[in-house]
Every structure is written in structure tokens, then in C-alpha cells.
Amino acid sequence: MTQSYFPIFWDTDSGTALVVGGGENAARKVRLLVAARARVHVVAPTAGEEIQAFAEEDRIILSRRPVGEDDIAGAAIVIAATGDNDVDSYCAAIAQAHGVKVNVVDRPDLSSFIVPSIVDRSPILVAISSAGTSPVLARRIRERIEASLSPNLGKLAEFAASLRSTVAERLNDGRKRRAFWELFLDGYGAEGVLENRPDAGRQAADELLGALARDEKPKGRVTLVGAGPGAADLLTLRALRALQQADIIVYDALVGPEILDLARRDAFRLFVGKAKGRHSYSQDRINGILIDEARRGSSVVRLKGGDPFVFGRGGEEVAALRNAEIDVDVIPGITAATGAAAALRLPLTQRDLANVVSFATAHPAAGKDEPDFAALADPNQTAVIYMGKTKAAEITTALIKLGRRPDTPVAVIENATLSNQRILTGPLCDLPGIAAISDLTGPALIVIGDVVAEADLTGAETFAQTATKDRAVA
């Protein structure tokens, strides 16, 4: 049966931590203790470079000799890390005889406490333990938690501490104080602090305190969030926090269920994208929804595939919100071009092949000019074309006429980064064939340029073969 442990945090001001041993195991423990500003005494006949450096910097006391009973009896806690069974067992026996808590590295049977894996966002600390059964598993869990927590979480804790007296003075109702902390920590004030914008945090706190004191609904806000090319694990941490704080999520067709599953469970979700059999919302109507919901005091996330400012109409929505005097933030996402390039290990620029990369859409707004094909025809440039399937023939004709080689390598990536990702490839002269492929229905990106030859095209289909096969089936 696994030994049971009760988690506690030791006050480093309460005494000295004795570390017995001078090798790498001891150095790891010393590193943690020094980071926690503990008083550390290391006792060992010899010590490694890191421990010696700590001693030379006066960050620890180092005694180069064997450990004695007085060393152990006078310590608040003991960590034995010699790797010598006799010495470690001696430390455990003496510590237990004097009522001193002891940890023997990798020997839970000799220990009265264990050292957990730690995520340090001081003053916030997260400790993970497997009760000594699997330290590697505990480290893996720590790594996942580490990746999910903002590096500035400690700053947020300190900022919250600085607000405590002000909140107590301005809100004399305990329910309102609780509401303030919940709304502030789940909202844009905390996000501002996490983004190294403390002034935004102070402004948000002041507005929220004023609204609660006047029994008003807090001011709403809209955040445009880039959902990336599709894979949920390509979301940024900031995007994830926004999803988990949102009251309402307004999302497009390119946002998959795996990403929506990361949102707060009680958030209202409104689909406004274009999809077969579903009514399409106009841009003006979407703008109106965002404005109305923010005015009701909601925290609104406008969730878009890719990046909001790369063919995502993010600029139009920001302009509408600003004109309505609604506060708006933008969280970038990995755009489809960079997501697809990474999935194929395709360098969009490379010194000897392409020194420019251009993003273009094959479907400009009504009344606007077609893409600048003259610029896209430059052989030293990589051209990335969004939404180009139905205009593949026009793109090909224009580029070849303007100087692109007919044999220029091309890749078409459908559903980039997802499990059903599909790659088609071939020379530019064969690109029109993709228009005849009936099952090429997902979001597809066209990459044109010599860099395509550097990509990992394992499992790729060719334009000509796929189009011929599709016609034969038909």
C-alpha cells in the first residue's frame, strides 16, 4: 500500500534546511531551496561546482566535512542526498530521533516528507506529488501545468494583494467583494496584468468597483481571438484564457468542436459562419451582435479560424466596435499559411529559393481588384493563396502569362494540422485540375514556389491523378 502524505508548505523563515551531500542530487535540492529564499546549510566532504558557486556567492553555508549529529539536530528539515546507503540511513535515524523532518532522496521508506515537483509562479506555488511512486510522472504533470499557467501569474497575485484594502473600503458588502474578485480575476483586468499592462488592470478594477458600488452591471467587452489553423493544441495560452472567461462565444465555420470544448461550459455559443444548410450571418449583423452583447455587460469572444487580421475581417469588426465605444482586444492566432507550412515542414522563405512571401485571397470584396498577379509571379517569391480552389485556372493562367514557370512546384493543403489533413501537389500547369476534385471540400490553401520542393510531401496526391480518378468515379 502506498504511504499516505498530507501536503503542506514549509515556512523558510522558520529554520535552517540541512542538505547532506555535494553531488547532482544535492544540487537539485539546493537549487529549489535557494529559489525559495531558505537558509541552507550543505554538509559534504566534497561539493560540485554548482554548490561551490552558491557558497562563494554567500547564498548557502557549505561545510566540507562528514555530517554529524549536531548538524541534524539543529536543523528545521533535513534532506539526505549522498546516494550512500549508510550515510543516508544514518541521517534518517538521527533526524527521527530528534523529531526533525527528513527526506532521503529516492528512499520514501526512510523519509518523513517528500519533495514534490514544483511549478513556481511566486508567490503562487503548485506542488505535484506521486507519493514517491513515480517521480517522472509527477514531472510530466508539472510540465503540463507549467505550460498552462502564465509566467506572470505571480504578478497577478501581487497585484490582487495591492487591491485588497481598496476593495474593502469601497465595497462594504461581502457578496459584492466576492463578486468583484470573481469578475476581476476572470476578466480583462486580470488579463491586462498577465499581459504586463498593469495600468489596464487598474483601470478595469476601478471601473468594476464603481459599477458594483452603484449596483450597476459591469461594462462588457469583446475579444477577437484567433483559433489557429484547426488543431486545438495550437491555440495560444492567451486565447485559451479568453475562451475560459467568455460569457458568449461567437464563432465561424472553421472553428472545430475540439477548440469549442476548451471554452467555459456554461458559455453561450453562437455560430455565425457559412456552412451548407445553415443561414449565413452578414458582417453587419455580426457586428451588431457583438455590440449588443457587450452593452449588456457580457464578456464576448469573437472566435475566428486562423488569425483575425489575416483575411478574417477582424479590422472591420474592430472598427465597428470602436465606433460603438466598445472596448476590444485582439489575440492573434497561427494563420493557416504558417500552420500548413509547419505541418509540411515547408519553409515559406529560404535564402536560396525565396526571400519574400505573400498572402493573397482569390476572393476579394465585391468591386475590389483581383490579386496583384504581377507581384505573385516573381520567381523569388512564395505565393500563398487562400480560398483559391474555384479560381485555380485563372490563377494558373495569370501567373504563367506573367513569367512563372509552368513547372513551378505547388502544394494544396486541405484541413491543415487536423487529423484529416490532405496534401495535393504538382506543377503549376496542373493546378487547374483541383477544381474538378469533388471531395476537396475543406478549407484549402495553395502554396506556389520553389520552396514547395523542400517540403515533406509524404502521402501527397498529385493534381492530375486525383482529378482523373475523380472524373472516372463520376
From TrEMBL:
GO MF annotation terms: NAD binding; precorrin-2 dehydrogenase activity; sirohydrochlorin ferrochelatase activity; uroporphyrin-III C-methyltransferase activity
Cited Pfam families: CysG_dimeriser, NAD_binding_7, Sirohm_synth_M, TP_methylase
Gene Ontology terms describing biological process: cobalamin biosynthetic process; methylation; siroheme biosynthetic process
Pathway stated in the Swiss-Prot or TrEMBL entry: Porphyrin-containing compound metabolism; siroheme biosynthesis; sirohydrochlorin from precorrin-2: step 1/1; Porphyrin-containing compound metabolism; siroheme biosynthesis; precorrin-2 from uroporphyrinogen III: step 1/1
Catalytic activity field: precorrin-2 + NAD(+) = sirohydrochlorin + NADH + 2 H(+)
Domain Tetrapyrrole methylase: 221-431
InterPro entries the UniProt entry points to: 4pyrrol_Mease, 4pyrrol_Methylase_sf, 4pyrrole_Mease_sub1, 4pyrrole_Mease_sub2, CobA/CysG_C, NAD(P)-bd_dom_sf, Siro_Cobalamin_biosynth, Sirohaem_synt_dimer_dom_sf
Keywords associated with the record: Cobalamin biosynthesis, Lyase, Methyltransferase, Multifunctional enzyme, NAD, Oxidoreductase, Porphyrin biosynthesis, S-adenosyl-L-methionine, Transferase
Active-site residues (renumbered): D252, K274
Domain Sirohaem synthase dimerisation: start-end pairs: 152-209
Enzyme Commission no: 2.1.1.107
Keyword Lyase: yes
Domain Siroheme synthase central positions: 126-148
Keyword Lyase: yes
Family assignment from sequence similarity: Belongs to the precorrin methyltransferase family.
Name this polypeptide is given: Uroporphyrinogen-III C-methyltransferase
Organism field: Hwanghaeella grinnelliae
Lineage: Bacteria, Pseudomonadati, Pseudomonadota, Alphaproteobacteria, Rhodospirillales
Gene this protein is translated from: cobA
